[in-house]
From TrEMBL:
Listed EC numbers: 5.99.1.4
SUPFAM superfamilies: Thioredoxin-like
Basic and acidic residues biased stretches: 225-235
Protein name: 2-hydroxychromene-2-carboxylate isomerase
Native organism taxonomy: Bacteria, Bacillati, Actinomycetota, Actinomycetes, Kitasatosporales
Species for this entry: Streptomyces lycii
Annotated stretches, region: Disordered: 210-235
Keywords noted in UniProt: Isomerase
Family: Belongs to the GST superfamily. NadH family.
Amino acid sequence: MARGAPRFYFSLRSPYSWLAYRELTERHPDVAAAVEWRPFFEPDATSERLLTERGGSFPYTPMSRAKHLYILQDIGRITKERDVPLNWPVDRDPVWEIPHLAYLVADREGLGQQYIAAAYRTRWEEGRDICDRDVVAGLGTELGLDPRELADAADDPALREEGVRLLLDICKDGVFGVPFFVHGFTRFWGLDRLPGFVGHLRERAVPAAAMPAPESGPVGLGSRTTDDGHAGGCG
């Protein structure tokens, strides 16, 4: 067995990560329960400074206009093929620590999965801005959590430090885009690599009890995400 617990690096920003989340939880719930869920987010100036001070460097390159236009077309195709509702959000001066550090608050309270589901629905099905603190506060109210604690998570120094530790793990695990799946030294990048990751874990019986055989049917559609020149590069 490969060393280390399997990890799923997800981003609330990325439509490919959203679709991987849906496929993982709906078609492979046993694997979803077996992996560690790790948020991937582009650092703001404060997080980037803290990351640099600790010897890290975030592996992200802004996408070109052509790549952005391709993603709009590609995600439109995939969601239509899968009959998945889509409402494109508009990000205005996004600070990605706001929704992703709020996830850490929800996860601490045992509601991490519920928060991810609510945040993805809010962003990709309702088209709302999840970097808006009032929107995040609404997610807190929906989940029965302190709305201001979620909305203001990015202002909490302890959560900032935890976020930087997660960014350092991104560097250590060689994560350059999302969705990204890691098990020991084995890595899978992109929505279309999810079936391979599922098969990899099941072959190695993670967790210790053997998992059921993978489902039959078509593999996941879509493209790998985030880095230079490749389809799906929205981080």
